[in-house]
Amino acid sequence: MQRLANKAPDGWREPHPATILVVDDRPANIQLLFEALKDTGYRTLAAVSGESAVRQAELGRPDLILMDVLMPGIDGFEACRRLKSNPATRHIPVIFMTALHETDAKIKGFEAGGVDYLTKPLQHAEVLARIEAQMSRHRLWADVEIYTQTLLNMGAADTPEAAWETLKPLAQKQKDVAGLAVWTADGDGLKLWHGTVLTADLPAAWQPEGAPSQRIPAAALIGEAYKKRRQLSALDEAAWHPYPAWARAAKLQGHIITPICCHEACYGVLAVFFAAPVTYAPREQPRWQKMLANSLGNVFYHARSFEAIERLSRQLKLENEGLRAEVSAAAESKSMIGQSIALRRVLDQVDLVAPTEAAVLVLGESGTGKELLAQAVHARSRRSGSAIIHVNCAAIPRELFESEFFGHVKGSFTGALKDRVGRFALADGGTLFLDEIAEIPMEMQGKLLRVLQEGTFERIGDEKTRRTNVRIIAATNRDLQQAVAEGHFRQDLYYRLSVFPLTLPPLRERREDIPALTRHFAARIARKMGRPVPEITRDMLAPFMAYAWPGNIRELQNEIERAMILSKGRPAAFTAPAPASAAPDHTAFEDARVIREEEWEALQRSNIQRALERTKWRVDGPGGAAELMGLRPTTLRSRMKAMGIKRPV
Description:
Layout: E1 19-23, H1 27-40, E2 43-47, H2 50-60, E3 64-68, H3 76-85, E4 94-98, H4 103-112, E5 116-119, H5 124-156, H6 160-173, E6 179-186, E7 189-192, E8 198-199, E9 215-217, H7 221-228, E10 232-234, H8 237-240, H9 244-249, E11 254-262, E12 265-274, H10 285-323, H11 328-331, H12 341-353, E13 360-363, H13 370-379, E14 388-392, H14 401-406, E15 407-408, E16 420-421, H15 423-426, E17 431-435, H16 442-454, E18 456-457, E19 466-467, E20 471-476, H17 480-485, H18 491-497, E21 500-503, H19 514-529, H20 538-546, H21 552-567, H22 597-614, H23 625-629, H24 633-643
Parallel strand pairs: 1-2, 1-3, 3-4, 4-5, 13-20, 13-21, 14-17, 17-20
Antiparallel strand pairs: 6-7, 6-8, 6-12, 7-9, 10-11, 11-12, 15-16, 18-19
Helix pairs in contact: 2-3, 5-6, 5-10, 19-21
């Protein structure tokens, strides 16, 4: 710690002079002591009996009592005993004055609660020396009590704000402290915490009128303590204080600055102000300030750690709720299967665009593997260490798009029973995959465009603007340019999404990949069914090679699974499905027999599932399953709920 001059400034007097109560039945003795004490800077009170001394001590609360022993009425010993039995006065040190030289008398005085013994006739130099020694000792114990309680309270604080509250009593109770403040790190400077200084004169936090900006540069002396992480003190207010006019108005003559640090991290500085030069504060002050700053640093450290743990906990909770389970199926295949020229051309384009931040639009027929291609782009990007969040736009009801994308706060609309984090917040730092992008309603497209352009959004019911940093990969099996021409899709949004389009070829244009795909799916399905991996020959693949596969890879996978289920453990017989245009066989119903309820329910379930699979599980809108079946979307959703029909993960 910086050492200062040991000479007090001319005319300096202690800002809080101690009060001495002189108790003697002889006024002449009181007068002599008054003169000696006044010249030294002490304030004085007088009492001429033991009874009056007890009353004066309770009313005036002196810092020390000079007590004569032999007095009319109760003697000094009894008066001391009464003082020590009163909680309001028991802390006041008592020095006895007597002409008695016997050891028994001295022992009796100490047993009564006295701290020292002066023998008459009194020597003024000895009296002043004994008073100063006891006052220093008393101040030390008072400091111990005040600082210990402050440290205990701060240790129990679980937030920096709670720790701030524990500092307020210190500024009022510690006589040597004129005030204290905390500056916290703020960019390349320091900012006055809570914008206030705690002072000894007011019960609440206070900032002098006309104080300059609360933020100070790190180059100031307060900043030096922060940068060097070293305790500093100063005497000349013009040199050390960021606001010299303020320091002079408050008559501050020095302070101690202690960095607030914990585990290699520094959060700011604790500044304790004195109305006397720092040299004349107790020598223990620098040690106390270090303990306070270290305790405050622990609070900051644990609060920041708790915030980080909370963020991780929320993220893990969301993951456990299945928000990343949407991509688990695609994760089973680390790469796209096939070596055809058409597929290799697309994967070469993936290698080009993946390391960039460009938006990608994946085009292709249903079942070609658009989601898997989006996974491949994300896996080869700089964001691969973060999540890729999948949103199926065709499965979101029109009225819930904004909540799904941006989230909402509890009570913001009917049914908002708790806060919800939107997909843009979940994907922050990662990738957001918008499947079936053409199904987004026009009124929602403008809000989506805004977050893509500015990176900001608001949750429903929340005025706070939040930022997000996501990469967008969109996919569709529809012609977006035609949708733009027909007025169903915004042109500016189309251009924002289609920075780098990738078109996946249909399976009929990459037939050479069918053998590899068949073996891959057969092996995976066999493992799930607990069967040995079947051997697939060229002859077995012939029906698949000849078929056009309008449902592409998804249809191929379904046919392989159906064949393996029907094989019942025998070698699977792969046959191409019947053409979709073939007329349905109604012979099963020509006998007009009565159908049992369970059969009718099974037929309804099968019919709904076929409609959903044909429309890729899109219920609403043009070409949706409800329109295909001639039902209202609400009716179809009710039947799906009643039958327990859910989209497979």
